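fwd from M.: "can u put these together and see what the complex looks like"

so here's what she sent:
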Amino acid sequence: GQQLNQSPQSMFIQEGEDVSMNCTSSSIFNTWLWYKQDPGEGPVLLIALYKAGELTSNGRLTAQFGITRKDSFLNISASIPSDVGIYFCAGRSSGGSNYKLTFGKGTLLTVNP
Amino acid sequence: KAGVTQTPRYLIKTRGQQVTLSCSPISGHRSVSWYQQTPGQGLQFLFEYFSETQRNKGNFPGRFSGRQFSNSRSEMNVSTLELGDSALYLCASSLAGGPITDTQYFGPGTRLTVL
């Protein structure tokens, strides 16, 4: 089946630093999504990407859909303590009636104030 | 607009019992998907329902089942619980689950503990 490799698994950074994480896939995705999950809560959508090469920003967050359609990255600039959490990438392989997301294992982000 | 709601938020059961979890999607959303989240396996897709029909299914045993009602609310059931079923069960809804731009929004999850 499809697999997503997300790296790094965890990051410890100082407040104000920039962060970068990425996901690679063994197969092509038509949609890449980035979610953040706080403890005890469900994932919250941060950024959605629908076209190869697309670069999208949401405040201090920027994500790109790789041109091969097999990878995506998420950057967080000028990190703040509330950025702490687990970040997941997710890919969707096709439209139509196939709405099934494949998730990466997550990147645990810790921000030291 | 209210988000996806899930009940109960926490549940403790013993091995061999069965459990039913409930999910109410965002108003107007007709597609509901269920995921299991564990520390070891991460987020794994269970199944997706649309218009009261199961459209997609993940690789879980038949003990895991679900249904969707005419108002799009969904339930999932796990029979003969095993210790390994302890997990956070997440429900996600989307408008129709069809167009590529249709996005899933997650509920807070139900934390199931099997003793």
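replying to her w this: Chain B is about 0% helix and 50% strand.
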